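FW: tagging you since you asked about this chain on Friday. Here's the raw sequence from the shared folder, copied in full. Didn't touch anything.
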Amino acid sequence: MELTDWLLTARERGNGATRLDSRRSGGVDGAGADGGGTAWSAGNLVRPLVHGAVYFAELLGAIRAQRAGDLLLFTDWRGDPDERLDGPGSEIGTVLREAAERGVIVKGLVWRSHLDRFQFSESENLHLGEEIEEAGGECLLDMRVRPGGSHHQKLVVCRYPGRPELDVAFVGGIDLCHSRRDDAAHRGDPQSLPMAAAYGRRPPWHDLQLAIRGPAVGDLEACFRERWNDPAPLSRSPLVRLRELAHREDTRADPLPPQAPDPEPRGTHTVQVLRTYPNRLLRGYDFAPDGERSIARGYRRALRRARALIYLEDQYLWSAHVVKSFAEALTAHPGLRLIAVVPSFPDQDGRLTLPLNLIGRITALERLRRAGGGRVAVYGLENHAGTPVYVHAKACVIDDVWASVGSDNVNLRSWTHDSELGCAVLDEQPDPREPRDPGGLGDGACRYARDLRLELSREHLDRDPPRNPEEPDPLCDPGTAFDAFAASAAALDAWHDNGRRGPRPPGRLRTYRRPHLSPAVRALCAPLHRLLVDPDGRPFTMRRRNEY
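HL: got it, structure written out here
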């Protein structure tokens, strides 16, 4: 397998201003814009942390292991200082404050939302920053985004000078905030945020983060440093600038210590860091003056290799424009199947946003089904009590070779407009359980990608892994997996349709049923959706320079 068959070269990233690809020497195939550097790192160990409770417990251990002089860097969309990582005393604000009091260098960038009356996160992020800064750390509210955009990256980097074997980075879809600390039982986070009524008072939450060790930790730290060192002011808004002065908010980033050498190789995983940065009006980012759309480009590169199975878990799966690449792959290869796991209902019940969001989902699925017909299967999740599970995960596995996890969704915001961060992973270790060669490409299944798909699939199907980890699992076969999802969802659907009589069938999958919108509502919303906004609520005119 040639890495450039699946991964972008530095030139294909399309951002010659970043130091991400020029920070290490490499071969010709991965050459950067200046003729040197590679667009990925080899020798990493990547572990998926499925569920917020699993991630939070590991993050808590990593932070509490830090001591004076260690470095803790984080970016987030929303941070609730009272959110517990485990039990009492593990509130994220408390844990970060205690780290700063021990002499850990704590630096954070969290999004300053546009208006808290829209129930975003400005006040919560401000309170988190205050708690950290009182202890000597630094947390800045960052509004360096396009109009209507957000900083959506979810990253924590922990470096341990003198103990580099402990260095770790966490990247994925899990924010340090309420509702995220759920586990495999999906009973929800005791500290929950209000959502659509269908999810109840304690919404079940399905999510995913990666723990990465090895040289890629240095790449992810470099991503943080680019944002931290950006000379642009944190906000261009005169009102925000006045408020910063009135409240004496910290608006200047203090210098970071020099970046330590990358950690030594730890495993067999090649990691490519993928990002979205918009093309900002007037002066852009100094590290991405024309933006960066490597997430979209990375997906398009991998989808061109798809032959057997695309496995997708996504919060949105909106926009016919974005799913075009998936539809083209389904059209080109009649044996290709797509399994998508999405929320059964949008997260909010707004009178205008709900029908607009549903139209976005409907148009995307219509395009996929025109391309793939019965080879496209879309499911929602529920827990064993029958409550829908909100799918917040952002994961894609293609042919058990390429696997991506990050903050990015399959929608226009994530591919063009917000700041996003994810990692595509290839494994040098082939899967010995049942090697295969989809479409004659010579790309047999890789252990990491297949293990990720199997772990997620087994949870949704209520299946245990084989007792012998080297024993072939029937779900390794794409056709068997596709049929298993369909059979499990059909059985659970029938049980519900029959009034829940008799034992509940195993599994948590429900067939995603196209939402009903009256002709009058569609007639009212469709022109607005088509002419003024996309399903993300952002004017089309704001993305014309952000095409990927």
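FW: DSSP finds 14 helices and 18 strands in the chain.
HL: agreed, and The mean pLDDT is 88.
FW: great, closing this out.
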